[in-house]
Amino acid sequence: MKHTVPTLALAATIIALALAGASRVARAQEPPAWLAAYQEPAARLVGEALSSHFAWERLAELGDTYGPRLSGSTNLDAAIRWAVAEMKRDGLENVRTEPVMVPVWIRGNESVAITAPSEQPLVMLGLGMSVGTPPEGLEAEAWVVGSFEELDATPERAKGKIVVYNVPFVNYGQTVQYRGSGASRAARHGALAVLVRSVGPPGLRTPHTGALRYDDGVPRIPAAAITVEDAERLQRMQDRGTRVVVRLKMEAHVLPDVQSANVIGEIRGGERPDEVVVLGGHFDSWDVGTGSTDDGGGCVVTWEALRLMKKLGLKPRRTVRVVLFTNEENGLRGGQAYLDAYRNQLANHVMMLESDGGVFRPTGFGFTGSDAARATIEQIGTLLAGIDAHRIGPGGGGADIGPSVREGQIPAMSPMVEGDYFLIHHTPADTVDKIDPMDMARNAAAIAVMAYVVADMPERLAR
Amino acid sequence: MKHTVPTLALAATIIALALAGASRVARAQEPPAWLAAYQEPAARLVGEALSSHFAWERLAELGDTYGPRLSGSTNLDAAIRWAVAEMKRDGLENVRTEPVMVPVWIRGNESVAITAPSEQPLVMLGLGMSVGTPPEGLEAEAWVVGSFEELDATPERAKGKIVVYNVPFVNYGQTVQYRGSGASRAARHGALAVLVRSVGPPGLRTPHTGALRYDDGVPRIPAAAITVEDAERLQRMQDRGTRVVVRLKMEAHVLPDVQSANVIGEIRGGERPDEVVVLGGHFDSWDVGTGSTDDGGGCVVTWEALRLMKKLGLKPRRTVRVVLFTNEENGLRGGQAYLDAYRNQLANHVMMLESDGGVFRPTGFGFTGSDAARATIEQIGTLLAGIDAHRIGPGGGGADIGPSVREGQIPAMSPMVEGDYFLIHHTPADTVDKIDPMDMARNAAAIAVMAYVVADMPERLAR
Fold this sequence. Notes:
- The first copy, chain A, has 14 helices and 16 strands.
- Chain A has 463 residues and is of the alpha/beta class.
- Chain A folds into two domains: 28-105 and 257-456, Aminopeptidase, CATH 3.40.630.10; 109-251, Glucose Oxidase, domain 1, CATH 3.50.30.30.
- In chain A, helix 4 (54-66) crosses helix 9.
- Chain A binds chain B through residues 60-61, 63-68, 74-75, 78, 114, 117-120, 123, 202-206, 228-229, 232-233, 236-237, 240, 242, 289-290, 423-424, 427-429, 431-433, and chain B through 60-61, 63-68, 74-75, 78, 114, 117-120, 123, 202-206, 228-229, 232-233, 236-237, 240, 242, 289-290, 423-424, 427-429, 431-433.
């Protein structure tokens, strides 16, 4: 009968919501005694975060000054040096870089055009890690398909063609497979290149880049994203019976790996410094936009949690560590390097939190861990009801913390937010103006409170 | 006391609206006897327009097949041939082209980048009719100004700089002056080039092109549109005290004029064929997007009015003529050529209507003419209450019909619509998917009813 209690509480909550017409949720239970001590520091962290637009201004300075930060670029190197200097200025401890070898993919010039029935340029972005075309380009008839099933049903039609995947965006996990493996799937049937409808909702002729993976033993063919508008246009032309010829030119190529780095800063724990709460995001971005939502914002708000603690003189029992991971977008080498460096210390990793879903309006956190740990996290969450960021849902985690979380069976969290993430994801429109300064401050506040309490509470978070 | 009557009627209308919660407006007066005869043909025109997505499909075929249609381009030439053939297939009469010499502006390759404090590309579109840069580009410090007043207050700061106009979009008429005359205003003070914040609301890193005009006696300097995001970014960098260097490369240049054409089709009047109601839009577009909203849609819906009449066997007393004007965007030569060709027949031009504000949800018509003519137009408008397109407001007209309307003092109309015109205006995102097929059908229906009644009613529309 245990589950009856929360069910009844939920029903009561729904009634209360319906009556109040507000989004506040009544607390399901009285907070435990140990949590009472955290109401005051939580209020101070929230108040400090919301007293200025510091986080947004820092993110704006990052994006404005260094722009996009693709792995291996001089911009990323310069931004890493800036982050180290800024963390030191914030008074963080043990500020350091940890070297990571990363792939170097160069986009070069690129274009795609319809050449028959009439010449007209389309809007495109080559997919990350794609090979290029011959210098004169590839020109071939287009064949538009709506799914892998349609491709595989008449594979002979792909031979010598440029295959166009016109697959509407359902959700990222479901649709991104066409970007990730569409090139090799078509290459198996003799296609010369692929164009992939951008993985995102309709924008303003907005192309979305992102990484692909080539299968072994299959020719590596060039692949580019086109816009929703142009995918639909090619579909209409094919449906009318028009023979459409497309010319794709891409200078894309891969250079030898170079050294990049994860950036790390800490607030050392006052009593149990070897026990660590890790926060972070990834500092690299695609080479378009300024990587503000993906994922400069996640870096700045997790870093901000430490800055706020430092500024307020809040020194938790355990260590809080921020990691700005490198090379999430096209290699995940930063997350792997962290695991390699800290494999022997994972048992002392109390919790890992990654923000990589945009610093839009926060509603709470996703959490993955034991029921006992979840109960504690839900209790801490009640401290965030005032900024409406108190909900604890499933599915905490992140690409960069993933390798360590899996290896160490570490409780994992990530902010839940409401925003147009996939409208701007991997596009030139990923710029700081899409982010509300107060939303960003609330993200920082929520992460700071959660991290501080987990790092300071008397009993370690359960595994 | 005369104005008391409409005031009371208006009050009654407001009360009726408030009670009904609907957008229908009660008729202010009973329709006159002569109008009763038009209820049946009006219903047939509306029904035929709304029985299919013919207009949208035609516009999609135009944009998909011929793409952008800049004056002097082979795409515009091919689209003109297509329109002539299609008009003949519709059964229109006197289908013909009338030659117009048009300017030829070539965009060529172009780019703009911040080069200091770090190298990063910006998104841009050169302004139409701009000169290019030297092949190696122009590189200079940026100076961001918020108005002409700010520029003129310290003119010496412009010398040797690339002046950036960061002027927020208020409305088109007010803001477009920075695009139109910003280059020459800055060149007077020795600026090397100008970057103009796109004339439109914030988009998704969406640049808006459009024509500029060079003043005589001032050096012609290159000019390009940048996005709202990048204008704000350059502003923030300047406000932080960062010295920003920008490099602009443009191959833009003008070639000698070539021959283009206005496309004309008619339904000849059964009784007074020399009296003409002219409908139209402009068939040229900028060289980005597919010119679907600006102004393929206006061409198709006005053309559609004639197709609907023809299909229903409705032959009005007077002639209805559709004109697809050429070269509105960068010369207005088509509108001028029409005036030159028909100057002696303007007295017989009963009314001219242009659709160039987008074929979004129609709400009625703007009208410019005498009070007597307005009263008649308002009566005809009542036939369109069923599709909520019956309102008659001020300000009818259009760029292409403007020269003839002014010269001949001809009553002028244009559809009033509700839509995101300036979000996609002169951008790559001006594509057919932004237009709702039923909105387009309703535009065609409203224009067809208005044009048919004006062309057929016993008494000629008053001057």
